[in-house]
Amino acid sequence: MPKKIKDISELPGVGRSTAAKLTEAGYSTLEAIAVASPQELSTAVGIPLATAQRIIRAAREALDLRLKTALELKRERASVRKITTSSKNLDALLGGGVETRTITEFFGEYGTGKTQLCHQLSVNVQLPPEKGGLSGKAVYVDSEGTFRWERIESMARALGLDPDEVMANIFYVRAVNSDHQMAIVDELFELVPKENIKLIVIDSVTGHFRAEYIGREHLAQRQQKLNKHLHQLMRLAEIYNVAVVVTNQVMARPDVFYGDPTRAVGGHVLYHAPGVRVQLRRSRGNRRIARVVDAPHLPEGETIFVITEEGIRDPAE
Ligand code: GTP
Ligand code: MG
Q1: Which residue range forms the structural domain that includes residue 87?
Q2: pTM of the predicted structure, to 2 decimals
Q3: DSSP code of residue 284
Q4: Residue 214 located in a structural domain
């Protein structure tokens, strides 16, 4: 049995200088290489296409990316766990809560509760399973600077948890641009298994990409990069059986952004990626409407939750 490859420098045909070039170009992990296309890798690293193909194949083998049997699929499905949102309505809409092994996208206009849900889930993932959690930690990647530890504190207290303990179990990082955001996700392939992390939040997943790739001429490039980012997140979700939650702000008037693929057709970014998309809308006062879009495995319909001082809750009867 050949030795198990654990690092990119151990890939056949990758010497010190190629390993350095790969790292510099952002392909610092086996996962990053495994999900790259040969063309992309060859251009980014300046290696022949055939070499890129060989490296990608080796990375995939090292990660065990092979055909699965139906039985394995069944077992994978059975390993899916759910995190409560603290709203029974919303949990029911999601088929029990936010699932591991997948990406859940909350999209909607400003003030619809995307960030509040991310805070609530970062607390709730720490609850024991009998209370709707996974006894795990959270990573909060904040691209907009809207994370508030004070909010975590009140949500934790409202659930009878020790606020300091809860805050100690949330790893926070501010992503300063899209490249940084992607590099952070690369690093999570190491951190997640080491720290019993069960939830990864990216709030928002699209902000930097939109700000940096402006204009129609950059749309394709932006979408390509965003797809790669989502792909990496999907790998994290699958490999480590964690929940990945991303947010995406969409404007009320999609016509203004005509031609923008991240805003088209309902506006969600997961249009071509696997995952669960939840649209949020404002209603009266602190009430918010949630709707799951194109999820054949979930029941159709809408539900209402509220944002209170304690966090996400069901509306009073
Ligand atoms: P953008 O990031 O701007 O796209 O919005 P968002 O969807 O992330 O909105 P967010 O989750 O920040 O929701 C904002 C709403 O949550 C506000 O309109 C408030 O009604 C509510 N909210 C935020 N913080 C608190 C709080 O401490 N107490 C209470 N009661 N409500 C809060
Ligand atoms: Mg927000």
Answers
A1: 77-313
A2: 0.81
A3: S
A4: yes
Identify which of 112, 116, 262 to mutate to test ligand 1's pocket (most ligand atoms within 8 A of the CB).
Answer: 116
Residue in the block written with tokens 């990216």: 202
Residue 67 counted as domain residue: no
Rounded distance, CA 242 to CA 84, Å?
A: 14
Integer Cα distance of 288 and 58 in angstroms: 48
Q: Kindly list the strands in the beta sheet with 137-142, ordered across the sheet, starting from the edge strand earlier in the chain.
A: 170-174, 137-142, 197-203, 243-249, 103-108, 276-282, 287-293, 302-308, 311-313
Q: For residue 16, give the CATH number of its domain.
A: 1.10.150.20
Coil vs helix vs strand at 200: strand
Atom from ligand 1 closest to the CA of residue 309 = 30
d(CA 86, CA 159): 10
Q: Please check whether residue 158 lies inside any domain of the structure.
A: yes
* Ligand 1 touching residue 279 (CB < 6 A): no
Inside any domain, residue 69: no
Q: Is the peptide bond before 204 cis (omega within 30 degrees of 0)?
A: yes
Instruction: Please report the DSSP string for 51-94 in residue order.
Output: HHHHHHHHHHHHTT-----HHHHHHHHHT--EE--S-HHHHHHT
Same domain (yes/no): 118, 218: yes
Do residues 43 and 57 lie in contact, with contact meaning Cβ atoms separated by under 8 Å?
A: no
Question: Looking at the structure, do residues 111 and 26 belong to the same domain, yes or no?
Answer: no
* Domain tally, the chain: 2
Instruction: Name the token pair of 133.
Output: 């959690």
What CATH number does residue 89 fall under?
A: 3.40.50.300
Distance (Å) from CA 110 to ligand 1 centroid = 9
Taking only the tens place, the pLDDT of each residue in 64-116 is 766 778 998 898 889 999 999 999 999 999 999 999 999 999 999 999 999 99
**pLDDT tens for residues 200-238?**
999 999 999 988 988 778 877 887 788 889 988 998 998
